[in-house]
Amino acid sequence: MKVLEKRLPNKRGYFGKFGGRFVPETLIPLLYELESAYLRIKKDPLFWKEWKSILQEYAGRPTPLYLAQNLSKYLGGHLKVYLKREDLLHTGAHKLNNTLGQVLLGKKMGKTRIIAETGAGQHGVATATACALLNMQCVVYMGAKDTERQALNVFRMQLLGAQVVPVYSGTQTLKDAINEALRDWVTNVKNTFYVIGSVVGPHPYPMMVRDFQSIIGLETKRQILKKERRLPDIILACVGGGSNAMGIFYPFVRESQVKLIGVEAAGLGLNSEHHSATLCRGEPGILHGMFTLLLQDKTGQIKGAHSIAPGLDYPGVGPEHTYFKEIGRAEYVSVTDKEALEAFQILSEIEGIIPALESAHAIAYLIKKAKELPSETIVVINLSGRGDKDVTSVKEYLEKNEKG
Ligand SMILES: *Cc1c(COP(=O)(O)O)cnc(C)c1O
Fold first, then answer.
1. Strand order in the sheet with 377-383
2. Interhelix angle for 122-133 vs 151-159, to 10°?
3. Per the CB 3.0–4.6 Å rule, which of 50, 139, 166, 381 could disulfide with 144?
4. What's residue 171's pLDDT?
5. Mean pLDDT, residues 54-59 taken together
């Protein structure tokens, strides 16, 4: 492993070679304003106190670190497997840690209006929730096709008081929604804050989202030291944009004895055209304001990503993960749709926990590798969300496959 640089990103927003701020000139002043506001508030203990109190009283933190004895036994009895229960956080996933942080930051900056973009709708729901709580106006851009596929999440956002704007340009999916949100931001910068949902985008977003999600790893560290009096050997998390993984990894990054493993979606297989394994198979390029690994074709066009898990279906990845991969601080692997579905069913049956299909990827990897691990290995899996949102698509998939 190469040495880990201190205090990343650097002033220009780079993690090693990756990250940066690749946006049109009109956006630069907005990002400068955001960066300086965040750096100011980062040093303000009152901000963090307020955010933590909301997380505790409203959202249900700290989430349990649960020793999954049935799963440990199922895997051979030689491991101790702990689940970090982000599925028990309000709204059913880790995303709220970040949206509460950013919306509160927006409020402190004097903004009154929040915008976001969403693909599957999960980030939109988490943003709308934070806005309802903190009395902010909320506008969520969503590709028109996605609003049809995710009609229930559109209704959830509307119940929460948000305005959902369908975007009819281009492919009518996430990337078009991002363009529309950026256009809105430039036009309404005075009163508007743009909330990004993962450790992606131009600087300072990857740093900011990492800091907010690090609460997961900080709690995990405290909890495992109390329960086991030592650090875990392995930490596993699924990687879409990379925020739940970065959140649990980051507080352990300087503890080199702790192995960090990110699990990507191999979809129908790494050699098919239908996967989202950006760190395993991507090439460097620029998308959404950052220089990072991306799924692209020979001419550099961004390829469509596929995963059975809607939250993993993204052709890019946070630049800090790309940096961790390059210096060897974390390892990135992948599991297929089929393997994730099996893990989804296994965890449901043996632990009574229906995991999000995203999180099921991390579990599936452990199921594959358990036999190779020495006894007494302590493994922590970030259970990033609950699977209630996925039961309909799993049912359809299983019925289709039974019929052959
Ligand atoms: C959105 C989501 C993910 C993927 O996003 P990351 O930024 O990679 O964490 C993973 N799990 C769940 C439950 C999600 O909702």
1. 65-67, 79-85, 377-383, 234-238, 259-267, 330-336
2. 10
3. 166
4. 86
5. 98
Is the CB of 238 inside a 6 Å radius of any atom of ligand 1?
A: yes
Q: Report which protein residue has its CA nearest ligand 1's atom 3.
A: 311
The Cα–Cα gap between 125 and 135 comes to 15
Across 272-383, the runs of DSSP E, i.e. the strands, are 283-287, 290-294, 330-336, 377-383
For the whole prediction, is pTM greater than 0.85? yes
Pairing mode of beta strands 290-294, 283-287: antiparallel
Helix (H) or strand (E) holding 115: strand 113-118
Residues with catalytic annotation? 95, 117, 384
* Spatial separation of the C-alpha atoms in residues 139 and 118, rounded to whole Å: 11
> How much is the pLDDT for 404?
55
Task: Indicate whether residue 95 lines ligand 1 (CB < 6 A).
Answer: yes
Backbone angles phi, psi at 189, to 5 degrees: -55, -30
Candidate from 129, 244, 264 with most ligand 1 atoms within 8 A of CB, to mutate: 244
What is the structure's pLDDT at 196? 98
Q: Is the CB of 88 under 6 A from ligand 1?
A: no
Secondary structure (3-state) at 381: strand
Beta carbons within 8 Å of 122's beta carbon, 6+ residues apart? 93, 95, 153, 197, 310, 311, 385, 389
Greatest Cα pair distance, the chain, in angstroms, is: 59
- Map residue 312 onto helix, strand or coil: helix
